[in-house]
Amino acid sequence: PTRRSSDLLYTYFMKTIFTYWVAFFALFFGTVFLGYSLNIPTENIIVVLFIFYYAFQWFSIYRGFRRNHNWFVSSVIVQAIFAVASPLYFSNFWDPTYEYLTGTWLDSADALDPCQLCWWARIMMFPILPLMLTYAFTKSRPILWYVFLVTIPGIFLELFHYILQKPRIIGRDFIDNPFWCTAANPCAAIDVDYFGIFTIPFLCFMAFVFIHIVVGFFLFSKKVVNRTKKV
Length: 231
What we know:
Blueprint: H1 2-37, H2 42-66, H3 70-85, H4 96-102, H5 116-125, H6 128-138, H7 141-165, H8 200-220, H9 222-230
Helix pairs in contact: 1-2, 1-3, 2-3, 3-6, 3-8, 5-7, 6-7, 7-8, 8-9
């Protein structure tokens, strides 16, 4: 009876989490569609999307502490999906928000060629999604350690990339890049810059930081660890 009750509770939580994120995606892309249909300025749509996204993410983390650790898993998976399957963080094409608003994610007519630092960031980010999906089914703890550790160089790489783009944040007009970016495709180039803050490397930096913090809860929070062992 105890085992069956546990199975039923697990099923309930998984259905609740799935429904929660389906509602989020419906709201997110509904906002994109509505904003584009009504010709709302792109900057206003971006603000609303950021509010929706992080409100849903932080509520998911809260539920992870209060109810079930699978909320943490879902938060990381959703963040990884946005990082690898959308142009919000990595764009092979053009303005990421424009791609969202027009639905032309795979139109390479105005393609952006990712610089060397962008490619290294992708190499570190792309494995996270399949690894977290694997963890969701296997609950293999070593997977979490890999995700936790790989985000550390990702954080520093994207922070350095952002400083290359905006050296004034450290009080300089220019800094040398020791990596292999070319003059034709410089890493310091700014192709997307929302509100003078949000460039593609900065958004990727936020993704790495978010994943690092949430996975850290898995590994170091006694409350979460004990709850994970019971599932």
